[in-house]
């Protein structure tokens, strides 16, 4: 059971240029006309995140217009060209301002992750408040999304996004306490980069 007064923010990173895809990944549609961003936001909300933020940069206007019905906080990252870490910092700063005790960070193209995985990440983090982060692992590979504690979010928010160590993987390697949570979901180590990959994924029931 979640401790009383604890809230977990959901952060979707959708600021990249999607160059390999050729169009915004966030706006990719299933046969039922649901966007990938919609699927990701619903996943976080249904898994227990209280408040979902979407960080946009490239194609921000197109993404917001196509997904205008979503009940999310939109965060525009004007420094998106500096890489995903700048978007992460923008997201965790918003989570901290909301008073959240932690955050689930999900790249928009990490599609198909199960609700049970996200719930397990949150539960593990809240049951072990000393942890900086909880990272899912499938067959020896680290994946997404990740759970970040409030303390770890504060450390990330204080970093210069242009510094040499401005990468989440480097920060996780140097974390004080981290758990790699074994999961039985191959989607945690996959992402959508091409139209063919999206076609294969979206042929499912979504």
Protein described:
By secondary structure, the protein is of the alpha/beta class. The chain has one domain: Spore Coat Polysaccharide Biosynthesis Protein SpsA, Chain A, CATH 3.90.550. Helices cover 33% and strands 19% of the residues. The protein is built from seven helices and eight strands. Strands 1, 2, 3, 4, 5, 6, 7 and 8 form an eight-stranded mixed beta sheet that branches. The radius of gyration is 16 Å and the shape is globular.
Under CATH, the topology can be stated as Spore Coat Polysaccharide Biosynthesis Protein SpsA, Chain A
- Poorly predicted runs are none
Number of helices: 7
Q: State the secondary-structure class.
A: alpha/beta
Number of domains: 1
- Outline the biggest β-sheet: 8 strands, mixed
What is the β-strand count? 8
Q: Span between N and C termini?
A: 29 Å
The helix content is 25-40%
Query: What is the fourth-level CATH superfamily?
Result: Spore Coat Polysaccharide Biosynthesis Protein SpsA, Chain A
In CATH, the architecture is: Alpha-Beta Complex
Name of the CATH first level: Alpha Beta
What Rg, in angstroms, do the CA atoms define?
16 Å
Q: How much strand content do the residues show?
A: 15-25%
């Amino acid at each position: 059971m979640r401790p009383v007064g604890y809230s977990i923010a959901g952060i979707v990173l959708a600021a990249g240029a999607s160059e390999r895809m050729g169009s915004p990944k966030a706006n990719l549609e299933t046969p039922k006309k649901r966007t990938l961003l919609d699927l990701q936001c619903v996943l976080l909300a249904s898994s227990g995140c209280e408040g979902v933020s979407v960080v946009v940069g490239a194609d921000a206007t197109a993404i917001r217009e196509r997904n205008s019905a979503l009940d999310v906080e939109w965060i525009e990252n004007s420094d998106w060209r500096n890489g995903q870490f700048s978007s992460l910092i923008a997201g965790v700063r918003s989570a901290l301002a909301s008073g959240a005790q932690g955050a689930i960070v999900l790249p928009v193209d990490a599609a198909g992750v199960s609700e049970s995985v996200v719930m397990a990440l949150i539960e593990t983090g809240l049951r072990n408040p000393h942890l900086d982060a909880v990272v899912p692992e499938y067959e020896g590979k680290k994946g997404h999304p990740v759970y970040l504690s409030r303390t770890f979010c504060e450390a990330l928010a204080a970093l210069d996004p242009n510094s040499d160590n401005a990468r989440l993987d480097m920060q996780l390697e140097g974390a004080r306490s981290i758990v790699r949570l074994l999961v039985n979901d191959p989607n945690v180590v996959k992402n959508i980069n091409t139209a063919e990959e999206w076609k294969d994924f979206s042929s499912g029931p979504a």
